[in-house]
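Folding follows sequence. Below is one example:
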Amino acid sequence: MSREEDRSSLIAHRLWQVDDALRTAHAMLEQGFYNGTVNRAYYAMFYAVHALALSNGYTGKTHKGMVVWFDSEYVKTGKVSRETSAVLRMAFSARQQNDYEEIIQQNFETADKLLHAAEHFVAVLKTLFPHDRP
């Protein structure tokens, strides 16, 4: 397999992860697992950014690095709105709180809002892929 085929396979896998994370987030929301919903909504966005980065030849090493890359390549250039980036940053922050702060309990309203924002974010990002990509 060539390097380009490897990259294409990884992009396809990341896009599968996007859809899987969104499906899982919906199931968790329905079952009342709000912290899990926030986590999966964030990861759907992260995987979408990662796939987009790979399609542009960028391979970031950290979550924060991906957010910075996204802002540099897509927000500062006007390809996406600042609001789009704000949603990613909000989700990143909520996920960080869930994982690293003590006694964080998300509620339905927050989880539901973030999940719908993640779905919109992913839809926007999917329009940005080069035409020869998924």
User: Anything to note?
Assistant: Residues 3-126 form a domain with the Four Helix Bundle (Hemerythrin (Met), subunit A) fold (CATH 1.20.120.330). The helical segments are 3-31, 34-55, 63-75, 82-100, 108-126. The chain is about 75% helix and 0% strand.
